[in-house]
Amino acid sequence: MKTAKIKSANFNNRKKILQIHYASGKTVDVHYSQIGITKNLIDTWVDKETKGLALGLRFEDQSEDYMPYDQPLALTKDPEYSLQNHIENVVARIEETILEKKISKRYLAQQLHTSDNQIQRLLNPAILNKNLEQLYRIATLLGLEFDWKIKKAI
Question: Are residues 67 and 90 in the same domain?
Fold first, then answer.
């Protein structure tokens, strides 16, 4: 996911807002209460050990905590993050069924009249640009069916 790495963060204790800047250029604002912060912040830093996948938080009482990169994206219901999450779930279910039924990816490629490489791309959750028709066909070959729902956001 291109928004995975945190570039920087700043905070406003008066407004109780933590602003996270991602390497992709995306900026997300979260209220302290959304992430369970009850004390004022005195410092934030991008965690080098996780290579930008977490944000360090230091509070006025000198205690520290860490926040994973995706928590603000999930809380703000970021569309790109949500899409990636849904695709990962669909691909995981398809992969699980392929293993359970001991079906080769070469067989799937033959049945779909496509290449092995195309099947590999379809089943790679990091690639967002998917051919939904082919995912439907794979699911059908495996005895799965999609149940798409759209509902009012909360």
Answer: no
Q: Residue 148 domain-assigned?
A: no
| 66-91 per-position pLDDT tens digit | 999 999 999 988 888 888 888 888 88
Stated pTM of the model:
0.72
> At residue 77, what is the residue type?
K
36: left (phi over 0), alpha (psi -120 to 50) or beta: left
